[in-house]
Specification:
Blueprint: H1 2-8, E1 18-22, H2 28-35, E2 42-46, H3 52-58, H4 63-79, E3 85-86, H5 102-119, E4 122-126, H6 141-149, E5 154-157, H7 170-179, E6 184-189, E7 192-197, H8 198-204
Parallel strand pairs: 1-2, 2-3, 3-4, 4-5
Antiparallel strand pairs: 6-7
The protein binds zinc ion.
Residues 20, 46, 48, 87-88 line the site of zinc ion.
């Protein structure tokens, strides 16, 4: 399908093959094999707290502990070396939104970001968060500033799922990056990160 789309849009639009890959400790050998099965341009690593297989293993009924486990697993995903980017990296806030208090989890987030920064793995700013229980992007502006302090590169994503949501909210996302102190946004091509100045990215939006 991707090859057909590449041929159909040649010269007008670059169509690349990527994968959003589920991370959980212990899956590494399987993920290594999976990622070798196709010539992928971009591999995103995701901790999906809402998936039954993940919840069964890690949810004890203590929501704060679940939030902490999520950030531990984000750091492990970065350290695994399997991924270019960590997807929607505060998604767990939507598990019982009333129990998400950023000041309470801030230390845990900072320690995870310290570990992620060392790996050079990028983190996504995902605009689809606006459509979820806590209507803000993933991650929120506070986490984005902590990422900026540590020089963690950011990749934009809309998690479109539908053609009409492709690049949804990118203008607002780029402005959020500027407010957080970023000067560049990144794309991943052939599993390599390429930086684009934010002003140039803003001008490219139509
Ligand atoms: Zn996801």
């Amino acid at each position: 399908m991707v090859e057909r789309a590449q041929a159909a849009f040649a010269g007008r639009l670059d169509v690349l093959l990527g994968l959003e890959s589920d991370f959980m400790p212990g899956l590494e050998p399987w993920l290594e094999r999976l990622h070798r099965r196709a010539p992928l341009h971009h591999v995103l690593g995701s901790v999906h707290y809402q998936m039954a297989f993940y919840r069964e293993r890690y949810f004890t009924g203590d929501v704060f502990l679940y939030q902490k486990t999520y950030y531990e697993h984000l750091a492990l995903a970065a350290e695994s070396g399997l991924f270019d980017t960590l997807s929607h990296p505060d998604l767990v806030k939507n598990e019982r939104p009333a129990e998400w208090h950023f000041p309470r989890i801030r230390d845990v987030v900072e320690r995870a970001l310290d570990r992620i920064a060392v790996t050079g793995v990028a983190m996504e700013l995902n605009t689809s968060g606006l459509l979820k229980a806590i209507p803000e992007m993933n991650p929120n502006a506070e986490q984005l500033r902590l990422m900026r302090e540590r020089g963690i590169p950011v990749v934009l994503g809309a998690d479109a799922h539908r053609p009409d949501r492709v690049a949804d909210g990118y203008g607002a996302a780029l402005r959020l990056l500027i407010e957080a102190g970023y000067e560049e946004v990144n794309i991943i091509v052939n599993r390599r990160r390429q930086a684009i100045p934010l002003q140039l990215a803003l001008q490219s939006l139509r």
